[in-house]
């Protein structure tokens, strides 16, 4: 077994504290990654707090992982020792179902194996990226472009692909009008991608102080989410709206902003069910959809897109001694726009 030093919540809602554990010895197709940086996703906080479902504890969160390969199994082809490598929200899936065969492994018909708070094929808990290393099959490991800042690349592995994937699926581009609701980790990546794809982008935010940032990050317009009149001015005009809000909020106002046949994509996962008025949907054949992180192929495509367009996350690097403080600030909406843990430095 491989010794791993990480940071875990020992039980639901508990603070994150140092935790030593073991990872499997690399199988023939596995790579061992010495983790350098790991982003803090709002999903980490939801899962530590059991907002969605009972968690597996101790829980080592973290699914925005970048580092360097430190060891390879005997059959590994894609990586050699020293290569940059990344891991996102999943570490395996059944590989046989229709979704897996199509490269949509996050939607695996029997359930993907998530990077943490899941169970591997032997029933052992999976532990995430708030740790000095991880062992992952190369098929679920991403190549990280060398021209991008490594710490700012980490959030692409979840916040990046979760916003890139629906923009591609619903064909955002030069002639579309895209709305982004919430300017946080996911929101700011959605904004950057929609802008880079050539769309006209409108950022909706509850935070007046983020307006200048939204414009700098690529928004063509910024609308305060509590300004009913400003919202109404965009009625029936959007092709796609990505809703990235992490807390309970009214989604009906955004349904009204969709054109005929257009879609509101729910990415944020609040702990409570949303309430929905049906009329605005049926009056214009509008849709509401959910979307998860993309599969491995699309995640690699997204990383290559970022390499070409020089897109990374806006980050604040935090030492591992300040994880609990970062969680509090994330819940207080005080982050611009993603916390990234400096894992490599924790070991020194
Ligand atoms: P985040 O950085 O905290 O951003 C959430 C944003 O939502 C905030 O910046 C804020 O934007 C807005 N917001 C917060 N509380 C609000 C409230 N009460 N009412 C209205 N707006 C509010 O979180 P994140 O990491 O981007 O994650 C966002 C959500 O997506 C979380 O629920 C997370 O679990 C989920 N998620 C889903 C997937 C997926 O596969 N679909 C993947 C990753 C994350 P403004 O200040 O601009 O209003
Ligand atoms: Zn995430
Ligand atoms: Zn599958």
Question: Could you please describe the fold and organization of this structure?
Answer:
This protein has 348 residues and is α/β, with parallel strands linked by helices. Helices cover 25% and strands 27% of the residues. The chain folds into two domains: 2-158 and 314-345, Quinone Oxidoreductase, Chain A, domain 1 (Alpha-Beta Complex), CATH 3.90.180; 160-290, Rossmann fold. The strands form four sheets. Strands 3, 4, 5, 8, 9, 16 and 17 form a seven-stranded mixed β-sheet that branches. 49% of the residues are buried. One zinc ion is lined by residues 93-94, 97, 99-100, 108-110.
CATH class of the largest domain: Alpha Beta
User: What structural category characterises the helix and strand content?
Assistant: alpha/beta
For the sheet with most strands, the description reads: 7 strands, mixed
CATH architecture label name of the largest domain: Alpha-Beta Complex
| Average pLDDT score | 97
Fourth-tier CATH superfamily name of the largest domain: Medium-chain alcohol dehydrogenases, catalytic domain
What is the fold named in CATH at topology level of the largest domain? Quinone Oxidoreductase, Chain A, domain 1
Task: Calculate the terminal CA-CA distance, rounded to whole Å.
Answer: 22 Å
- Number of separate strands: 17
Shape type: globular
Helix content: 10-25%
* Domain unit count: 2
User: How many whole angstroms does the radius of gyration measure?
Assistant: 20 Å
Bound molecules: NADP nicotinamide-adenine-dinucleotide phosphate, zinc ion
H-E string: EEEHEEEHEEEHHEHEHEHEHEHEHEHEH
So how many helices?
12
Low-confidence stretches: none
Beta fraction of the residues?
25-35%
């Amino acid at each position: 077994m491989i010794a791993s030093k990480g940071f875990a919540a020992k039980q639901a809602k508990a603070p994150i504290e140092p935790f030593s554990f073991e990872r499997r010895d690399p199988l023939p197709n596995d790579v061992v990654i010495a983790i350098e940086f790991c982003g803090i996703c709002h999903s980490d906080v939801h899962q530590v707090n059991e907002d969605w479902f009972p968690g597996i504890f101790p829980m080592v969160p973290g699914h925005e992982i970048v580092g360097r390969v430190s060891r390879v199994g005997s059959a590994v082809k894609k990586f050699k020792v020293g290569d940059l490598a990344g891991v996102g929200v999943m570490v395996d899936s059944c590989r046989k179902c229709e979704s897996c065969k199509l490269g949509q492994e996050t939607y695996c018909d029997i359930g993907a194996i998530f990077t943490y708070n899941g169970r591997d094929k032997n029933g052992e808990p999976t532990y995430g990226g708030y740790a000095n290393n991880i062992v992952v099959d190369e098929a679920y490991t991403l190549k990280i472009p060398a021209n991008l800042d490594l710490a700012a690349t980490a959030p692409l592995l979840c916040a990046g692909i979760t916003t890139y994937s629906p923009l591609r699926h619903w064909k955002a581009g030069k002639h579309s009008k895209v709305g982004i609701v919430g300017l946080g980790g996911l929101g700011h990546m959605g904004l950057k991608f929609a802008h880079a794809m050539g769309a006209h982008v409108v950022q909706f935010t509850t935070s007046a102080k983020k307006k200048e940032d939204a414009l700098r990050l690529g928004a063509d317009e910024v609308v305060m989410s509590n300004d009913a009149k400003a919202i109404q001015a965009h009625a029936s005009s959007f092709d796609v709206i990505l809703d990235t809000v992490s807390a309970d909020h009214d989604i009906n106002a955004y349904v009204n902003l969709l054109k005929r046949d257009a879609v509101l994509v729910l990415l944020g996962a609040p702990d409570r069910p949303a309430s929905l008025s049906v009329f605005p949907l049926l009056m214009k054949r509008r849709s509401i959809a959910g979307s998860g992180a993309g599969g491995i192929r699309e995640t690699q495509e997204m990383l290559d897109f970022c390499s070409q367009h020089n897109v990374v996350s806006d980050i604040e690097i935090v030492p591992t001694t300040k994880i609990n403080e970062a969680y509090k600030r994330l819940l207080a909406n005080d982050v611009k726009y993603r916390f990234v843990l400096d894992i490599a430095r924790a070991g020194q």
